[in-house]
Amino acid sequence: xxxxxxxxxxxxxxxxxxxxxxxxxxxLPIHWNLSGEVDDEMNAKTALWVMPAIIFGILLxxxxxxxxxxxxxxxxxxxKARSWIVLAITIFMSxxxxxxxxxxxxxxx
Length: 109
Description:
By secondary structure, the protein is mainly alpha-helical. It has one domain (2-104). The protein contains 4 helices and 2 strands, in the order αββααα. The chain has helices at 2-21, 44-68, 72-77, 79-104; strands at 27-32, 38-43. Strand 1 and strand 2 form a beta hairpin. It is elongated, with a radius of gyration of 16 Å. The two termini are 29 Å apart. This is DUF1648 domain-containing protein.
């Protein structure tokens, strides 16, 4: 789980930096259809904080599971798998977030 929090911190810092350099009126993709085409865009300054906020929510929920799950023994048995699943989700969401950061910084993706 530490790796996920570290990755989140990196994405958050990169997004905060990108917010400071994003030009006014710039749009970033936030949703894609099944063909991989962008079908919804959002103001860059808003889009740059949405993805880190979602990642934070997922990590907070995954961390809170250890306290709210009534069957703690089952949770302990699956802790390794849970950590890998959370890391995979964090990597996926971080990739999307960093693609927006890269676009703001002038890298065409």
